[in-house]
Each structure stands twice: as structure tokens, then as C-alpha cells.
Design brief:
disordered N terminus; alpha/beta; 295 residues; 9 helices; 5-stranded mixed beta sheet; binds fe (ii) ion; Purple Acid Phosphatase, chain A, domain 2
Length: 295
């Protein structure tokens, strides 16, 4: 596994590369993922394939990518993620704030994901700045940010600071562009799923699939040649349902998914947060209903 911290993956070589350490099959020789950190390791695998397996042809299996976003310290939802067999796990940012387990969420993401981009809350925690939330969330974000910074280790905060704000890479001939909010304003821009602004955002990038988070509402829409995917929020969904959201990309097929998780466990954690009871109620109501019960 790799964490491509700080690497710009725009210039992806047409290299026969896999990042999971498995042998390259002949059917995959023009596909797979590329990352500078993997090139030497994968060259070794390629050599082994060419020398030892020239007559052993295997059918190409689908490449499965699980995409999560906006975890917000909800470890109960993370631990219940119902996906165990996949090639890659990507995270579109906002690991921390609002939820009771920011440190554990950072550790989980560091260990489990191959690609992660920085969200506005990761940026705020890492650099101790304003996450620039909308009015109903401003005070909640401010108060939980203090808690987040208190319980995260220096290593956690370093990690959040080190996350890239965008990632681009090519896999199976598909050019992916990952950013937390939107390409023109990767950390803070707010663009709801029905906004006409997505047309312009899509027109200004070179990619087949643009993956975003931030709005906590899942959607897929097509703008010209660009498919825009928002997997929704795993830890604080705003769908009107108390179900954690994520998405799966499998050789071009996109599925938006939801699952039940032990919400009560997350609620117990929120009750222990050092924030006023009305703010705890708001965060709990959000998890229970999938919508904000305050003005
Ligand atoms: Fe978020």
C-alpha cells in the first residue's frame, strides 16, 4: 500500500503497474495504477511475469475501488464499512471534526487507504484555522475543532497537513481527479449536486471521473465527458436517512451505497464531547435523522 503524499500523479506513465503487490497478468499490461513510489517494486514484478509466466494467461478481473468521504471522527461507521474485498480504498477528505473519534479516524485512514485528499476540516485541524463552514455549522465546527486538536497527536496533525488537496491518476485507462470540494476551490468551495456550476468545473479539468465530497450528499452526474461522483458522507450523511454512505467504482460501473451502523455507539461518544448540550443534541439529531434539526 502507499500513501502518495504530495505526489502529483498527473503525468502518469503508460507503465504496466500494479500497486497491490500482486503479479501483473498479461491482460493487465496496459492498465493498473501508477505511482512514483511503486515503479521500482513493480518493475521487479514485471520482470518475474515476463520471465516465468510467459505462457500463463489469466482473464482480467474487474478493478474495484471503494470510495469514502467525510468521516468526521465517526469510528462506529468506519468500523462497520461492509467492504472487505477491493483493490483500492480512497478517501475524499474530512477525516475529523464533529465526531468523537478524530484520532482513531486518522489512524484508520492512514492504515487502510491508498489515496486521501485533504478536506476543509483536516486543513482547519492541521493548521489551526477556520474551516469556513456555513452558519448552522460554524459553532459546532469551532467547538469540536478544539476537541479534535486536543486529542489528535502531533503525528495525526502532521498527517492532516501533509495530505494533498488534489490527486490525479490513471487506472484502467480512466483518468481520475480527486478533490474534497471542487476543482476551482478544492478545500472550501460549496457546490450542491444540482448546481449548474458543475458544468464549468468539469469543463476546466482534464479527467474522465471527478470525485468530490464536502456536501455530504451522494450523487453521480454527467457533464460532457466528465462523470462527477460524490460518494456522500460516511460519518455524517445528509440524506434524510441515518445510513452511512460510500461509493464503489468497478471498471467503469459506479454504485452509490448505504449501510446501517451502530449509531448509538457514535451518540455515546458525542455525549462525552466537551461541548454544550444543545450542540451535542444537534450532532446527535443529525446522525439519527440525516438532516440538521437546528436553525
Ligand atoms: Fe465534511
Amino acid at each position: 500500500m502507499y500513501q502518495a503524499k504530495g505526489f502529483a500523479l498527473t503525468a502518469v506513465p503508460s507503465f504496466p503497474i500494479r500497486t497491490d503487490g500482486q503479479m501483473i497478468t498479461p491482460g493487465e499490461l496496459s492498465s493498473g495504477f501508477a505511482c512514483p513510489l511503486d515503479i521500482l517494486r513493480q518493475l521487479n514484478s514485471l520482470f518475474a511475469v515476463l520471465v516465468c509466466h510467459h505462457a500463463h494467461w489469466e482473464p482480467r478481473r474487474p478493478l474495484k475501488i471503494v470510495i469514502i468521504s467525510d468521516i468526521h471522527g465517526n469510528l462506529a461507521a468506519l468500523n462497520a464499512l461492509p467492504e472487505h474485498n477491493f483493490d483500492e480504498l480512497w478517501c475524499i477528505g474530512d477525516l475529523v471534526d464533529y465526531g468523537p473519534n478524530p484520532h482513531e479516524a486518522v489512524e484508520w485512514v492512514r492504515q487502510q487507504t491508498k489515496l486521501t485528499v485533504r478536506g476543509n476540516h483536516d486543513h482547519a485541524a492541521g493548521f489551526s484555522v477556520d474551516p469556513q463552514c456555513s452558519a448552522p455549522f460554524k459553532k459546532l465546527a469551532e467547538d469540536t475543532l478544539r476537541f479534535t486538536r486536543a486529542v489528535c497527536t502531533e503525528e495525526d496533525l502532521d498527517y492532516l497537513r501533509s495530505l494533498p488537496v488534489r490527486q490525479e491518476l490513471i487506472g484502467r485507462s480512466t483518468h481520475f481527479y480527486l478533490v474534497h470540494a471542487m476543482p476551482s476551490d478544492p478545500l472550501f468551495g460549496y457546490c450542491p449536486k444540482e448546481s449548474e456550476r458543475w458544468k464549468q468545473e468539469a469543463a476546466e479539468i482534464h479527467a474522465d471521473v471527478l470525485i468530490v465530497g464536502h456536501s455530504h450528499t451522494p450523487f453521480v452526474r454527467q457533464e460532457g465527458k466528465v462523470t462527477i461522483l460524490n460518494p456522500g458522507s460516511l460519518g455524517q450523511p445528509k440524506t434524510g436517512r441515518p445510513l452511512a454512505c460510500y461509493a464503489v467504482w468497478e471498471d467503469g460501473r459506479i454504485s452509490l451505497k448505504e449501510y446501517e451502523y451502530p449509531v448509538e455507539e457514535a451518540i455515546r461518544g458525542i455525549r462525552r464531547l466537551p461541548i454544550p448540550p444543545n450542540e451535542q443534541d444537534a450532532l446527535i439529531g443529525l446522525l439519527q435523522t440525516g438532516s440538521l434539526p437546528i436553525d
